[in-house]
Amino acid sequence: MLTVVSLGAYPLAATIFAVTAGIGTAPDAATLSALAFWCAQVALGIAAVGLGHLLRTRTPILAPLAAGLLLLSAFAHAASAGLMLGRAAGQGAADAWGANALAMLALVSLSLGTILLAVALFRSKLSIGWVGIVLLGWMVVEFGLSGMGLWAMLAGAAMLFTGFFVLAIVTARSNLAVWTTAAEMATQPVRREQPRRSASIRR
């Protein structure tokens, strides 16, 4: 939802070369867009850590890799949002090479993290493999069809919202034992089963 707000408040929808001009003509909208985008990255980072923890026992290699890449993407995109806030406040444009490198890091880590998360969902056998298809479909729409108009951007945002909303429900319904630490497990009393008496022994 925060991503949708960020896209809607962004003062332009043309090309990346018009970003500075758009921020200059609509600084308030640019500030709102950057703040919403930054909050969306915070939410993505929290979701990445939670999903990595939830899936770590089922996919011990894919889940940490996906979580790490998505967390890296969240940090890189949050830094990009900070650059947008600085330009909206009239602090001047950032170094073009540094901004492009940061954007490339965010894009690559987001793409790889999403793909690995989709594969982890397929292999986790949680009956939500279709969410991985939704996430992969979002990548196709976001990176392949976003230039076709506003409908593509809204469709991509809807797919992303649907995928993570379902994942939030699955996380909320997960077993509490998944979130129990080793220290907490050690302090829990051990249940000892009573030995079963043989049915042949009767008094």
Automatic annotation (TrEMBL):
It comes from Microbacterium esteraromaticum. This is Uncharacterized protein. Keywords: Membrane, Transmembrane, Transmembrane helix. The chain crosses the membrane at residues 34-55, 62-85, 97-121, 128-145, 151-170.
